[in-house]
Design brief:
505 residues; mainly alpha; 0% strand; globular
Length: 505
């Protein structure tokens, strides 16, 4: 079963069950059990090997991984900061300020998108920060938590993958291999990253066109009466807008400092790296933990000095913040364990073999094929970065000449497909944290987001065919033609969908 289609079955079953039963915890666990069973059968390791693989080599190993532990700590610290801002009254004060300055539902959504684009450093940081800041505003204007989760998710990975200074740029640069300028490769790929570009265009266009389709439409209709949410009922301090803005700005500054610190920016002598190299070599997990802890301490001191919240009340927010993140932590733990099951079954190697076996006669269609394969792998495993690590080196090896336009288009297709699959997958950590940031039911977020993501994916797939066919004209001309035709196709599709939804009413 190792290295065959069976390696993808555990993830496929978990995803199908989650979408069908609307219950994510048991669905992920069933997928884990199937993965452990397949591995035990293949290795003839019996019941002891089955249990050891699931819990010892799977769950415990994932929770012992330093990167994963860092992400969990970052989640908890963010939860504590959100609890602090709510209890101090900063979130409520910002909500009242926003109600005076943001006059419409469209304005609230555009403000959410703008903030999401502004926080391009890291997708995890984006999801939780945008959610905590904008949730009071979107609640006031009758925007469903499902729509907020989509806006957060669509400005997380899609923005990070076209931002040269981000943890994602650093990841791609690391997968480029020896002899490659990873950051240059990332920047060259941006114009061909059609899924990310079209997702942002689609999100803004639908807000301005004022319509929804699929399950999202029913959730938006259900929010007919705007109520004051629980955050305001729990306010104990007399906070002002500054009591939300200051912690968020502090968090952004120190998370950036933490990331470049891990990349060697503050080192001395020959070990010192410049700003770009520091980002390229950064450890995002450790950097975010360092930055968030510094921001947390500064925020508590700030509140105590301003006498907005006494120290004891600040400490009461520690368990509150932890409890708020327990669902996200549990889903992440199960998703990571499921990923370890598919990894042990050789899912990545199986997909890599499919790519390497592509016929030479399909060269001009290879970007579209790579996009579809990257989508499938990221969707089944819930990881973009793992997909980058497998497919980018293959694309580089398949097209060694830097003068070949198909080379950069294929690498871009790999990146775009991975982000798209990650965007759609219920077991993706970014999707999970977008649900946590919006405080939205996870399965509802996935089911409402999926039609939008699939629409952008289909348009992107067609656009990669266009890019492959026009690659002989050069990368600049091919990018311009492909973007214009693809954007036109997307806008045309949205106008058709708006007419159909209007008739359905």
């Amino acid at each position: 079963m190792v290295g065959t289609f069976w390696s993808l079955v555990p993830a496929i079953v978990a995803i199908a069950l989650a979408l069908f039963t609307k219950e994510v915890y048991s669905s992920l666990f069933v997928g884990i059990i199937i993965g452990g069973l397949f591995f035990a059968i293949d290795q003839a390791s019996g019941f002891s090997g089955f249990f050891n693989h699931i819990f010892g080599e799977g769950m415990i190993a994932q929770l012992s991984d330093s990167w994963n532990v860092g992400i969990l700590i970052f989640l908890v610290v963010l939860g504590i900061m959100v609890a602090l801002m709510n209890k101090a009254g900063g979130s409520a004060a910002f909500g009242k300020w926003a109600k005076k300055h943001i006059k419409t539902k469209v304005g609230a959504q555009l403000a959410t998108i703008l903030l999401g684009i502004f926080i391009f450093i890291d997708d995890y940081f984006n999801c939780l920060t945008v959610g905590s800041v904008m949730r009071p505003v979107t609640d006031k204007y009758g925007i469903s938590r499902e729509k907020l989760a989509y806006l957060i998710d669509a400005t997380a990975a899609p923005v990070c993958i076209i931002a040269p200074i981000s943890s994602w740029a650093a990841a791609v640069a690391g997968f480029a291999g020896d002899g490659e300028n990873g950051i240059k490769l990332f920047i060259d790929a941006i114009p061909f990253n059609f899924y990310a570009i079209f997702t942002i265009i689609m999100m803004i266009a639908m807000v301005l066109m004022k319509f929804e389709y699929g399950k999202m439409a029913s959730f938006e209709k259900a929010v007919a009466v705007v109520e004051e949410k629980a955050e305001e009922a729990e306010v104990e301090g007399k906070g002002k807008v500054i009591d939300l803005v200051f912690p968020v700005v502090t968090l952004i500054i120190f998370c950036v400092l933490g990331m470049i610190y891990t990349g060697g920016f503050f080192a001395s002598g020959e070990d010192k790296a410049n700003f770009v190299d520091a980002f390229a070599n950064s450890d995002a997990s450790t950097g975010l933990v360092l930055g968030s802890f510094a921001a947390l301490i500064i925020t508590i001191v700030f509140y105590c000095i301003r006498r907005v919240l006494p120290f004891k009340k600040c400490m009461d927010c520690v368990p509150d913040g932890f409890k708020a993140m327990v669902p996200a932590i549990l889903i992440l733990t199960l998703a990571w364990t499921l990923k370890s099951m598919t990894d042990s079954l050789g899912a990545k190697e199986y997909v890599a073999g499919l790519v390497e076996g592509s016929a030479a006669g399909l060269k001009l269609f290879l970007p579209a094929i790579i996009f579809a394969i990257a989508y499938g792998l990221a969707f089944a495993t819930g990881t973009s970065w793992g997909t980058f690590g497998i497919l980018i080196p293959i694309c580089i090896a398949a097209f060694p000449s830097t003068a070949d336009p198909i080379r950069i288009i294929s690498i871009s297709a790999c990146m775009a497909g991975a982000v798209c699959g990650d965007h759609c997958s219920p077991i993706s950590d970014t999707t999970i944290m977008a649900s946590a940031g919006a405080q939205c039911d996870h399965v509802n977020h996935v089911s409402t987001q999926l039609p939008y993501a699939i629409s952008a994916a289909i348009v992107s797939f067609i656009t990669y065919i266009i890019a492959g066919l026009t690659s002989g004209l050069g990368t600049v001309v091919s990018a311009i033609i492909s973007l214009i035709l693809g954007a036109g196709l997307l806008i045309g599709f949205l106008f058709i969908m708006k007419k159909r939804t209007a008739k359905a009413k």
